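for the writeup, i need someone to sanity check this before i put it in the appendix. the sequnce is what the collaborator sent (i think, or maybe the updated version? ugh). structure was predicted straight from it, no edits. if anything looks off just tell me and ill rerun, i have time this weekend
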Amino acid sequence: MATKTPPILSSDVSPVGGAVTIAQGDNTVAFTNSRLRGNLVITKATDVTGTFLFDIDCSDNTFDRTGVPASPANPYRLEGIPTGTVCTVAEQNNPLFASVSVPSNGTRTIALGDNTVAFTNTRLRGGLVITKAADAAGTFL
């Protein structure tokens, strides 16, 4: 499937339609172009409370960030990114948690509105085994 390139500019034309009738005097057609922008949003879900840190690497280095926090109910928002900019979000390593992101590579091409990269962390857990050795039979608590 072909990928559709997001629009990058919005244009206003005055007069509407851009048509003027040339008469004696000054007749001007004015064009105003505005760069379209979107937002990058990092969301976090986890089974244990905590704050997690993320790095953002964008094709427009103006929007690169290191160590930005996101936690459940407190997403991180980076606003005003030009549409068409490609941003990759990576979670900083936390050896206590397994992490899954959507999209799986953490990459979004910025379009109008919110462009979300969602992370879910699960606390890694291990089992505890207690063994007891004694030189006499008995019950131990």
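The radius of gyration is 27 Å. The longest strand covers residues 113-123.
thx in advance!!
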